[in-house]
């Protein structure tokens, strides 16, 4: 089978100097293609460098809400014209850390990047933490469904799932879906249509079972596939095939 990790950070210093090793580890568990996600100037540049050097890697570039104040539109527009860059991300809202930067700043930078995505017909990878209400409103007001919107590491319940599906989003699950204490995410995975489903690791974060508590790596997308297969009661091969094809569709590969 072939698995696509649609959101991972091989550009993180946790993997520095060991890119080939982690690509090889991934291949052993059938994870054969990955999207490397940027979040600020430094990580965007490294995502592009990796995608230029390894055929199975693609890059997304963008300014994560945590780095909203450093947003550089000119750089973003130049970078998304590179052939290795397949989308804009991760961008979004994060109200978890005492709302710093302020929500108004986060929203402004998110919307500016969404406008660029629309203009250049690029998909976006959305980071949303403790901010579903504001995110829903922004996505509703700025229809990007034609370019493609991925809700990365979705951890919402059935109610939020249905609202985001109605807006035409792609729903991507990380290791959280394998956690025993996330019943609402299991329920959402079970009810996400196969033609809207994506899988990811968000490595080095969010390590899935059975390795929770250890360092994460792209190879473990395999365990995300297994967890979703269990909740949907279909084979891992089916989940892998659909999510692989969906990833190619949303990233225009
Ligand atoms: Zn991420």
UniProtKB/TrEMBL annotation:
It holds the Pfam family TatD_DNase. InterPro entries: DNase_TatD-rel_CS (IPR018228), Metal_Hydrolase (IPR032466), TatD-like (IPR001130), TatD/YcfH-like (IPR015991). The keyword Metal-binding applies. The keyword Oxidoreductase does not apply. It comes from the Bacteria. One of its GO terms (cellular component) is cytosol. Keywords: Hydrolase, Metal-binding. GO terms for molecular function: DNA nuclease activity; hydrolase activity, acting on ester bonds; metal ion binding. A divalent metal cation 2 binds at residues 127, 152. A divalent metal cation 1 binds at residues 7, 9, 90, 202. This is Hydrolase TatD.
């Amino acid at each position: 089978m072939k698995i696509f990790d649609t959101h991972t950070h091989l550009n993180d210093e946790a993997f520095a100097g060991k890119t080939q090793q982690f690509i090889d580890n991934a291949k052993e568990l059938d994870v054969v293609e990955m999207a490397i996600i940027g979040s600020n100037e430094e990580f965007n540049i490294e995502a592009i460098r990796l995608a230029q050097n390894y055929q199975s890697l693609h890059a997304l570039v963008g300014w994560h809400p945590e780095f909203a104040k450093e947003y550089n539109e000119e750089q973003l527009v130049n970078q998304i014209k590179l052939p290795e860059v397949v989308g804009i991300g991760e961008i979004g809202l994060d109200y978890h850390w005492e709302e710093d930067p302020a929500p108004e700043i986060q929203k402004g930078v998110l919307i500016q990047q969404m406008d660029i995505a629309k203009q250049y017909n690029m998909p976006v990878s959305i980071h949303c933490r403790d901010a579903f209400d504001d995110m829903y409103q922004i996505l509703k007001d700025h229809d990007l469904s034609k370019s493609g919107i991925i809700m990365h590491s979705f951890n919402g319940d059935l109610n939020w799932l249905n609202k985001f599906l109605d807006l035409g989003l792609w729903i991507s699950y990380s290791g959280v879906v394998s956690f025993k204490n996330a019943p609402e995410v299991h329920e959402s995975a079970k009810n996400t249509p196969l033609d809207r489903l994506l899988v990811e690791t968000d490595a080095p974060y969010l390590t899935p079972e059975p390795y929770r508590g250890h360092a994460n790596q792209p190879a473990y997308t395999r365990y995300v596939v297994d967890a979703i297969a269990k909740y949907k009661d279909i084979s891992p091969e089916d989940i892998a095939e659909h999510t692989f094809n969906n990833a190619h569709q949303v990233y225009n590969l």
